[in-house]
């Protein structure tokens, strides 16, 4: 019998084939890419972008968006879209209390827009889809970094182009730390590693092939821009920042040895209580931070990070950890126990100084309902039966208000999955189909998963900036096809 996961996979395939049959078939029968055996190339770590100058409270950066030929598959140059010539883009390591000002120069022949996903910023720096940088022009984005430490990421958000331009490479990690959190005994330096994961399709010449909504025919998994690489690790504790930078790919991570992860953070920052996890779901745009413990693993062991939700067997193996020798001692080694050996849960009291985060504030003033579905007549993905209209505001919200949004995936018959991402705010997922969401998946979140038929309630407080911001499905190919709306925060009457 089919379990729920298998049924969702089958439904997704059937739903997509009903809507885009010609394009799907053309992609499926296109020429095959050069084959790269799993775990045959080393993992690359994106470069950390250095400020061009700094003041007492601000770091200034310069980036250029351009077409670049890079080696993704061994021995082949692939035309990509890049930030500063890097695929994915360079990592920005920012610090709470210090603003980051990023000047983006658009060297593409068409428009580009940069959105810092998960950031609390003014509308002028949000990277709204209708606020592009013209070819040859520059735009300055100011990020105040006045929010909790978190793994954020930046990506293109140009209206009708975001799906293709992110797919071709326009994304990167933005890691925000807090000086207070430096007291936590967490791995740092070479043991704090961002992993940007995504899928792709290459043709026989090794060039990226983009066909909208073609999730069934993107057979190559990339980690930091490398196909199913290996990562040489030491017998240490590692902090891995997992970022799903794909348009459509759904991951359910598991370690091949059966070892567990210690999840310490979600989209918007640290969990209230770290969670020991056997499997971790990560849908497009979601992030998690996990600790993986190699301290007791024998030297020479190989452990695979796997996607047990992969639609094909060749996409199951994601990344191979090759365990080497030891490394320099760190304070986390003596403070954080080996939870796989002890089989004990971890709580904040077991990690000295762990932050206690209280997500709920304010009284709920309004409940709204948003229904996501595919309109078969128009071929558009819509919210409340409407495609995106940049002149329409779908929700007017008084500053300081706390609201509950009920979000419905009305594509149960087609088996199509969706997500919902709100710009500007982090929210709490209250419940899913009437049942409370597990704590590790409830807060702090800016993107929520929606299985076919799901009804999910989220709660958010809009108490930072005034202005107009998007909300949309972060299956980016769906957003490109109009599954997006806008809310506007206005002064309280």
UniProtKB/TrEMBL annotation:
Keywords: Capsid protein, Cell cycle, Cell division, Virion. Pfam families: Cu-oxidase (PF00394), Cu-oxidase_2 (PF07731), Cu-oxidase_3 (PF07732). Gene3D superfamilies: Cupredoxins - blue copper proteins. Residues 67-179, 221-296, 378-491 form the Plastocyanin-like domain. CDD domains: CuRO_3_CueO_FtsP (cd13890). The keyword Cell cycle applies. InterPro entries: Cu-oxidase-like_N, Cu-oxidase_2nd, Cu-oxidase_C, Cu-oxidase_fam, Cupredoxin, TAT_signal. GO terms for molecular function: copper ion binding; oxidoreductase activity. Belongs to the multicopper oxidase family. This is Multicopper oxidase with three cupredoxin domains (Includes cell division protein FtsP and spore coat protein CotA). It comes from Lentzea albida. The lineage of its organism: Bacteria, Bacillati, Actinomycetota, Actinomycetes, Pseudonocardiales.
């Amino acid at each position: 019998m089919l379990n729920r996961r298998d049924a969702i996979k089958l439904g997704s395939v059937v739903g997509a084939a009903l809507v885009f049959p010609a394009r799907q078939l053309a992609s499926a029968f296109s020429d095959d890419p050069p084959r790269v055996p799993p775990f045959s190339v080393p993992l690359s770590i994106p470069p950390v972008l250095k400020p061009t100058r700094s003041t007492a409270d601000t770091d200034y950066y310069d980036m250029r968006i351009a077409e670049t030929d890079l080696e993704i598959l061994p021995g082949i140059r692939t035309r990509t879209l890049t930030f500063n010539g890097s695929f994915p883009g360079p990592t920005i390591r920012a610090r709470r209390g210090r603003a980051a000002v990023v000047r983006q120069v658009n060297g593409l022949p068409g428009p580009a827009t940069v959105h810092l996903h998960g950031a609390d910023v003014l509308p002028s720096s949000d990277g709204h889809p209708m606020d592009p940088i013209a070819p040859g022009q520059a735009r300055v984005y100011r990020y105040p970094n006045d929010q909790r430490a978190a793994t954020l990421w930046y990506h293109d958000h140009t209206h009708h182009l975001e799906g293709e331009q992110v797919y071709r490479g326009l994304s990167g990690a933005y890691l925000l730390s807090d000086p207070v959190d430096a007291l936590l005994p967490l791995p740092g330096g070479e043991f704090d590693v961002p992993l940007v994961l995504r899928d792709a399709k290459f043709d026989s010449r090794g060039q990226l092939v983009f066909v909208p909504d073609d999730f069934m025919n993107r057979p190559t998994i990339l980690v930091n821009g490398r196909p199913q690489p290996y990562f040489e690790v030491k017998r240490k504790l590692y902090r891995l920042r997992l970022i799903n930078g794909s348009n459509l790919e759904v991951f359910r991570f598991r370690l091949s040895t059966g070892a567990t992860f210690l999840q310490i953070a979600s989209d918007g920052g640290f969990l209230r209580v770290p969670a020991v996890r056997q499997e971790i779901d990560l849908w497009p745009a979601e992030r998690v931070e996990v600790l993986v413990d190699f301290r007791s693993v024998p030297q020479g062991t190989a452990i695979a990070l796997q996607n047990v939700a992969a639609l094909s067997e060749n996409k199951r193996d994601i990344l191979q950890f090759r365990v080497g020798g030891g490394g320099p001692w760190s304070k986390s080694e003596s403070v954080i126990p080996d939870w796989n050996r002890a089989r004990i849960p971890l709580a904040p009291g077991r990690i000295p100084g762990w932050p206690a985060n209280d997500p709920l504030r304010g009284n709920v003033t309004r409940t709204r309902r948003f229904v996501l579905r595919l309109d078969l007549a128009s071929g558009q993905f819509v919210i409340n039966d409407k495609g995106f209209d940049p002149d329409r505001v779908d929700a007017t919200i008084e500053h300081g208000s706390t609201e509950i949004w009920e979000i419905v995936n009305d594509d149960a018959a087609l088996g199509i999955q969706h997500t919902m991402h709100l710009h500007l705010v982090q929210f709490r997922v209250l419940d899913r189909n009437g049942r409370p969401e597990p704590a590790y998946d409830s807060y702090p979140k800016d993107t929520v998963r929606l299985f076919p038929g799901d009804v999910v309630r989220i709660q958010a407080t809009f108490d930072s900036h005034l202005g107009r911001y998007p909300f949309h499905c972060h299956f980016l190919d769906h957003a490109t096809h109009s599954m997006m709306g806008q809310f506007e925060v206005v002064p309280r009457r």
